[in-house]
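Regression test attached.
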Amino acid sequence: MRQEKLLIPTLREAPSEAEAISHQLLLRAGFIRQVAAGIYTYLPLGLRVLRKVSAIVREEMELAGVQEILMPAMQPAELWHESGRYEVYGQELIRFQDRHQREFVLGPTHEEVITALVRNEVNSYRKLPLTLYQIQTKFRDERRPRFGLLRGREFLMKDAYSFDSSWEGLDSSYRSMYDAYCRIFARCGLNYRPVEADAGAIGGEGGTHEFMALADIGEDTVVSCMSCDYAANLEKAEGHSGEADPSLLLQVEGNAEAGSAVNKQGQAAAGAGHYDRLHTPDTRTIQELAQSTGMAASSFVKTLIYLCDENYIAVLVRGDHEVNEIKVKHALDAENLVLADAAAIEAITGAPTGFAGPIGLSIPILVDRSVAAMKTVIVGANEQDYHLRNVQPGRDFSLRIMGDYRNATEGDCCPRCGGGLVFHRGIEVGQVFKLGTKYSEKLDAKFLDSTGREQLMIMGCYGIGISRILSAVVEQHHDSGGILWPNAIAPFYVHLIMVSVKDTEQVRLAEELYRQLKVAGVEVLLDDRDERPGVKFKDSDLIGIPIRITVGRQAAEGLVEYRERRTAEQIVISADTVVAKVTG
Amino acid sequence: MRQEKLLIPTLREAPSEAEAISHQLLLRAGFIRQVAAGIYTYLPLGLRVLRKVSAIVREEMELAGVQEILMPAMQPAELWHESGRYEVYGQELIRFQDRHQREFVLGPTHEEVITALVRNEVNSYRKLPLTLYQIQTKFRDERRPRFGLLRGREFLMKDAYSFDSSWEGLDSSYRSMYDAYCRIFARCGLNYRPVEADAGAIGGEGGTHEFMALADIGEDTVVSCMSCDYAANLEKAEGHSGEADPSLLLQVEGNAEAGSAVNKQGQAAAGAGHYDRLHTPDTRTIQELAQSTGMAASSFVKTLIYLCDENYIAVLVRGDHEVNEIKVKHALDAENLVLADAAAIEAITGAPTGFAGPIGLSIPILVDRSVAAMKTVIVGANEQDYHLRNVQPGRDFSLRIMGDYRNATEGDCCPRCGGGLVFHRGIEVGQVFKLGTKYSEKLDAKFLDSTGREQLMIMGCYGIGISRILSAVVEQHHDSGGILWPNAIAPFYVHLIMVSVKDTEQVRLAEELYRQLKVAGVEVLLDDRDERPGVKFKDSDLIGIPIRITVGRQAAEGLVEYRERRTAEQIVISADTVVAKVTG
């Protein structure tokens, strides 16, 4: 294509609202423009990349035997009432009424529509397994859209749904999509990790992986092992502190029973006297305590009071650890978990926020195993301005409910091999999910098995953020000059620069190479603009097409410059051989 | 692809809600399924056709030098306030608020978004002309969605917008799109007519054509000449009755002046006595009058009272003609035109509805030229239960305001060549429109011309109903057995039928041909289902793939059946030559 007339409005400066480098570069290089917060127009270059990513997804879906369909964005609310999600989805779900006051939603995802479709159209095990996908525009009214295409309100997704007649079938469908996803992200040039993720309310039989493109801007934390291929997101990752070796834990568990018995006798402070009161005026946070006492944060134990569904509970983690609420919810099989408010904390502990501790508490106490593995700890005294020192877990408070309730931390041991865990930031570009019978049960999607009995279909769902991939790729592939598109998804493969449109020899040679490249099937962008060379080269670096061929002063001698954007290696070669070099 | 696992849920019976044959067949052949009224899911076969039509559109757009972009469906209401359309668009526009109570609409069209884009990104004549298009999902909350994809609420459209620096440039952009549209519809196999249409409020400098696929189910009337290539939609078409030859009209116009003079003297009934009162009790319609008097409807003149913006007017047309309100609005440069209510009619004429006539009326009277060309007419007497006979236009009522105010009728003379006009029903599959400066003015889209002066961009817009084309094609291409897809947009080119999946010879040969066809680049659907032959053939006819190759009993002898769906011609040929016949 010819750049003179192509709409590529490059910008010298990044618009002030763009924080992420990918957002800045996609705006500056003229790939996208914002229409409203989280809502974008794809300009010609942006759309070309979007379509290349889509094409890769389609190829891999077809290879995996997955069928493409297209479902509507407008979905009747009835379906969402059937699944029960209408009430629980929250404000991200865009709802509106049609002219006849019928309720609709704009699909953020299509489990309901597809389950209703398959329920109506498939009724025999002979038609299973069946996996369907679409590449379609999704709507989510994000509270805080940001980072350009990374967190938008209208975005392009590939969503697939599998229907199986058995759990083994689901495992196989899931694995097939997992493998296809690996190929897709690799082909898009992404440095990604598939990580174990939390399956949420789906429960034990379900499994889920997220595909994380590693990038500092990422909103998720990827926990991975330096020695084996274990990787999980922070919600899911298990971490073991050095102290918490199994034998020690067993020992502690013995103590736990004793502690539990003590507690049951209502003598919460059975070990009283073994520990000391510590005057800690106005020190409510671990940070303040560590500062005022000169002790490490890991010497302390944090006691957090939560409202868990309808009951209050306490969760104990080491001072340098963070509670993982997902793990706590799973342990208690709870739906909702929120920190207790100040009034409740005061009522439960008898002290204002900041001085809670396990001793004497009459609510269930969940003790993280890192706490259980500590010899002595400092905890809140349940009394304003006081903490307790030399408290012994198991002796002074019960370890009856003990488990993994914290986020892993860097340096923890891998749960698989004991190697060291490291953290990275990641952008979630895809997720595969074993849904099981969650939707088939709600929407009554059944089939007749080979014995003629009705069974619920067993489902999986699989998503890829097509538009998000653009941003993730740019986050990973750029330099100070602009974008470095991977070949497979670059908007063009060759950027052919005609340095001076007034030099007839340059024009002639550039036009001839343009023609030859097109004939050879190479996607080429010809910069035929009447601009200064500096502008042309700056724009070219910004746009990031993999190969640049410059037709300049040496055109008369039949020489051109060949340059790879990524390496910046530049050679002068004969115009006669340059097309072969590009295609060879 | 293999049919065994492909989701093609064919139906023996058409669902009762489907009136149009295309709707019935697309449902029965498993191309689409309804999610809600006017909202559909495209199943694998339907999506394949949709993507083929899209590919043709993209090819022709690229050939026309048009650039593809992708705009969002969610549009901020501010833009629609700027253009003034937010208030006037009516209930078809879907409106909703985001979580922060900001108003949005779901785009039924994108003039606002694109004008705002180009206003921001293009500011010099050197970047013009510029034509941009997208293939994107549109939303219109139709009052009465029907006929499947013909009138839906969510549908796929190609919409393009041109920006020029001069009116001549617009003419050229418009012509280029017009030509591309002709190629697109022809390639899709449509029997279509480009027709002159009404440009509505855009005014004189604008022009517009609709592209009509001829089909009985069509909601529009196409008026075309049997002798020349004149064609227009009913709103726009000019028709001349045989009587209304120019000389006669001139003569009448002379009379008109006289009549006008008479009227000006306030002697509305100057010719009184020349005409007779006719007692017509309870005959309020032309039909009733014709029946009770035994005279042809064309002997009568209908007098319709309208409220036109803020004034009442009367419009006279022959009894067998219909008022064309668009033409009346243009003649009076009016925004709104509605029939007067009964009370207003009684106040103006002194008689209840059904007895209005021109004589004695004190409001402006628009006389259709067919009326002016009549020697004597029968009109309402402005008195209950009476009409007047032997009334002479020009003598008994003024012809001062005379023109073309009626719909053309079949048999009228072509305004170009005088040939006979015929009527067809048409489905609007595309429209090209000279917008002029309507949006650039409202949204302040200006450029600097070569002298450095600011000028408004001159715009055109161009739409194609991609999903609607599917229905239009099926309306035109079907027989009693099912669909007859044109080659260019067929979901597959060859339907390869393995008659018995239990016959190893058939299976072997069919698999071999399947492989060969795929290697040859032919899109082939292999019916490898374990179904009776009758079911396979019925489904095949229903789906409508152009060529069918049947591998049956003669497989052992190396023979197969080759059959064209459209002609039903069937031959037995050697399996060795069938691939060459398909590709040759």
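Expected vs. actual: identical. The mean pLDDT of chain A is 91.
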